[in-house]
Design brief:
The protein is an alpha+beta fold. Helices cover 31% and strands 12% of the residues. Strand 6 and strand 7 (291-294) form a beta hairpin.
């Protein structure tokens, strides 16, 4: 049976409690020493994530007239990530130098905010069309974003330890052996399909097509024109990317955009982030949440920048798709002449169709998996596994109207759009129209890609 979206205070309260519980379960697996360390200048301490998402609810409640009196004096100033309207902002590289509030204070603050939000939802006479409803929903989505960001930070942090057992091992993760055994038929799936499929061009309505929650940067739906184009059936794999590397991809400046080539030389890039070459075994390995593993050539390549994706596409004689091309390949049903919320249709039970956080794999699955999750055009894994770089600059759609200033609008410069979500994206957050954005040099996110071409 197809599940439907429910907009009610009861469902919103249930969603709020579930999301808060999931974050706390993830955080509780950390030792205190690991919870206060900032892994990098571009990351954040787990304790900061835990406190910041509560601070966001705090500010939403104040916006709607709730007077918050904290049970004790907690320094909350440094939890502001970028909102100018809230005055004091601590720059990201400084977050690890301020271990306040302490973990104990953070947990107390979190519990206090939980009660305040629950009381607000219980006593508030609001419905799903009210601004207050949208803002609490946005705060839920914001926390899910930080769940994924914290997972990025955890993989980066634990990669500094050589011992593969010195690692973050999620209690929910399926055993690696079970994952491997269940995926043995994926190679056959790839061999049975063409590498690319042609998508018909014409007028396409880009953006979120429904009337439930979405981010303001997914709106308004608007018309764009597309020429006919080809797009990969599968994401680019580790094996595909190895061929690019073996053919001198990181040594050929002709393949790279100028800024990307500068980074290759300055940072001495020779492979995707976290890859290590074992000379004795003459093989590539990496350390992820499964421990130290040999790279599976059938898994989608992950932790690559836009520059690396773009260089590969040039090497392959292809290009990266625009976000409109990506969305049409994921959303459009040519037979029914309509868009769908997900590649497989309208069923919101995402983790049965795609590898997302609730799938508990904590790693990409081999290409060719989740056959039920294919799009109308036959494209696999467009939701989940790895975020997919597009060639599009992150800009706001025509007639854009901000629903929460400084959330999505102020970042529409010098960023590239990614689509589709990853194995660390919560299922309640992702859909075909969701627009993620990062700077083209960034590799800490679980980013991969698929290519496009002109027919």
């Amino acid at each position: 049976m197809t599940q439907v979206l429910h907009d009610s205070l009861e469902s919103l309260t249930k969603e709020f409690k579930s999301i808060r519980r999931a974050t706390l379960n993830m955080f509780s697996q950390l030792k205190h020493e690991d919870a206060v360390v900032q892994a990098s200048d571009f990351g954040s301490p787990p304790n900061w994530h835990l406190a910041h998402v509560s601070w966001f609810y705090h500010k939403v409640l104040e916006k709607h007239g709730v007077k918050i009196t904290l049970p004790e004096d907690i320094n909350l100033a440094y939890l502001n990530s970028y909102y100018q309207k809230y005055d004091f902002i601590l720059s990201k590289p400084e977050r690890g130098r301020f271990p306040r509030p302490t973990i104990r204070q953070t947990l107390q603050y979190r519990s206090f905010i939980d009660k305040e939000v629950t009381r607000f939802l219980k006593n508030g006479n609001i419905n799903y069309r009210d601004v207050a409803y949208y803002d609490i929903k946005l705060a839920n989505q914001h926390e899910m974003q930080h769940q994924e960001l914290m997972i990025y930070d955890l993989q980066y942090y634990f990669n500094r330890f050589i011992d593969p057992d010195d690692n973050f091992r999620p209690t929910t993760m399926q055993p690696f052996e079970t994952q491997t055994d269940s995926l043995k038929d994926s190679t056959d799936v790839r061999e049975l399909h063409p590498s690319m499929v042609e998508i018909p061009g014409g007028i396409y309505n880009l953006g979120y097509p429904g009337d439930h929650f979405c981010y303001d940067n997914e709106l308004p739906e608007h018309k764009v024109y597309l020429e006919n184009y080809l797009i990969d059936i599968f994401p680019v794999t580790n094996g595909d990317f190895r061929r690019f590397m073996d053919d001198g991809g990181y040594e050929d400046y002709n393949l790279w955009l100028a800024d990307g080539w500068d980074l290759v030389r300055e940072e001495d890039w020779k492979a995707p982030l976290f890859w290590n070459y074992e000379k004795g075994e003459r093989s590539w390995t990496k350390k992820d949440f499964r421990g130290k593993i040999r790279l599976d050539p059938e898994e989608p390549v992950v932790n690559v920048s836009f520059y690396e994706a773009n260089a590969y596409a040039r090497w392959a004689g292809k290009r990266l798709p625009t976000e409109a091309e990506w969305e049409k390949a994921a959303s459009w049903n040519e037979k029914l002449q309509r868009k769908f919320l997900y590649p497989w249709g309208e069923n919101i039970d995402v983790h049965n169709y795609a590898n997302v956080l609730e799938s508990n794999n904590w790693a990409p699955t081999r290409t060719g998996m989740y056959k039920q999750g294919r799009s109308y055009f036959g494209c696999f894994q467009m939701i989940g596994d790895v975020w997919e770089w597009t060639s599009s600059e992150y800009s706001l759609y025509p007639r854009f109207k901000s629903k929460f200033p400084e959330y999505t609008d102020k970042w529409s410069i010098n960023q590239k759009v990614l689509r589709g979500g990853s194995f660390a994206t919560p299922s309640l957050q992702i859909r075909n129209s969701y627009r993620n954005y990062f700077r083209p040099n960034e590799r800490i996110l679980f980013s991969g890609f698929r290519c496009a071409a002109d027919p």
